[in-house]
Amino acid sequence: MTRSIWKSTDPKNNFPSLNEHINTEIAIIGGGITGVTTAYLLAKSGKKVVLLEAGTISGGTTGDSTGNLYAMVDKRLHHIQSKWDEETAANVARSRGEAVDLVEELVNKYQIDCSFKRVPWYLFSETDQKDETIEKEIAAAANYRLKVEELQELPVPVKVSKAIKVEGQAQFNPAAFVRGLAEKIDDGNCQIYENSEVYHIQKEEELVLSTITGTVTAKKVILATHTPKGIYGLQTALYPYREYAIAAKLNSGDFPDGIYWDTEADFHTSMRTYSKGGDNFVLVLGGHHKVGQEDDYSRFFRKLEQQARKYFDVSEISYEWSAQHYKPADGLPYIGESSDDNIYIATGFSTDGLTYGVLSAMILDDLLNGRKNEWSDLYKASRFTPVKSAKNFINENLNVAKQYIKDLPGKAEAGSFDEIAAGQGKVVEVDNEKWAVFKDDTGQVHCQSAVCTHMDCIVDWNDAEKSWDCPCHGSRFKATGEVIEGPAFSPLDKRSMNPKK
Ligand code: FES
């Protein structure tokens, strides 16, 4: 089982699940950093809010994130500058910096026990081939009034050719922060429900959200679900990827805190340090592939372990996990009102989601309170940027088209259930239909249709996470078919086992 270091501590307080009908002004779906921070700000401003989380607060992507907060971006500020312009890149850095400031303010205000600290961010090249990237980022960061320094060595044992250091970024335990903040939300204005998965949104005069045991009627709905639930045209501009992480316990070495990113194109990694229970860890994150489009998912963990052992005195790999992110076509997230009236979205954060999640909350709070927000036009969800989006849009949507074509009849992974090992899943063709078949550790077989309930792509078995992952828009399902994440609302359709197979 994979599990992130942040999810290794059970939450102290649980919230109830929804068992009634409620009317409210604003319903938020999703209890990660975006949903909880938005709920906090809206409740503070007097709005009546209901937050529905399918699992537990911070139990989704937030709990699988890095715990890094920074003004910089994964794509690099100098790329934003060349794709857009200097003003846009400056606004990205400024807006993200304000989001990090808000996290610090909330941690201090409520004394949230989440190991928040300001740390430097580093980007380094291991060979001089990437020095130019470093030089461009130094120039861009300096331009945007970030406190920048050029270095020839790092405070961790990684040999570098050149590095940039930006002071004043931050790290924390993201799950502890989100849970801590959820407990501080004004409960006179906001009700939080866990284990309350929304499986349908009905558009009537108002919006009606259904869970198995209750409903919420709201004037406005915020989909703080990482990617919008349901079918939206915007999904052609959002590309789902997975990234991997390990937490390696160290035998020796006590390294200064910091966010360390390399510039390797083949296997880009980021590192950070973390202390827990008297042990020092280094977290190494990297590997990167389209969701549902790998043959061997576990290989990424092995590669990260090699990276960790190359530089550090590692005692054991204590945690392994992976997380999803959605790349936006034009390089910037989509935050604001969607193409559906009264439904708001916050998505396309790439791997910079913790900071963008908080920034989304700030923008949505202003929009829903009728206040002007300095950044809302920059990240507007309905923007149309064909020139800036064209390259990614064409390549990524060709890739989606290929996923549909490659799953034509006759291309199953196994001819019979006997070919499936215990603990594994395979797509099997049964009576001209693709089935997603999982054999559990006791040998019991679980059968469901392999057709994704979002838009009918065929799902792929993920051997690292024991899940069915859709290669088209990133929906993921448990081995037994229930939705984990992504735009799909419904589980995979159950099938009865065919004795002949
Ligand atoms: Fe869209 Fe599966 S996520 S078809």
Mean pLDDT: 93
CATH-defined superfamily of the domain at 116-171 and 239-328: D-Amino Acid Oxidase, subunit A, domain 2
CATH class of the domain at 116-171 and 239-328: Alpha Beta
Q: What structural class results from the helix and strand content?
A: alpha+beta
Ends distance = 28 Å
Largest sheet: 9 strands, mixed
| Count of distinct strands | 24
| Overall CATH architecture of the domain at 116-171 and 239-328 | 2-Layer Sandwich
| Residue fraction in strands | 25-35%
The distinct bound ligands, ions and cofactors come out as: FE2/S2 (inorganic) cluster
* Helical coverage, percent range: 10-25%
**Total helical segments:** 8
From the 3D structure, determine the CATH topology of the domain at 116-171 and 239-328.
D-Amino Acid Oxidase, Chain A, domain 2
Which oligomeric form is depicted? single chain
Rounded radius of gyration (Å): 22 Å
* Global shape: globular
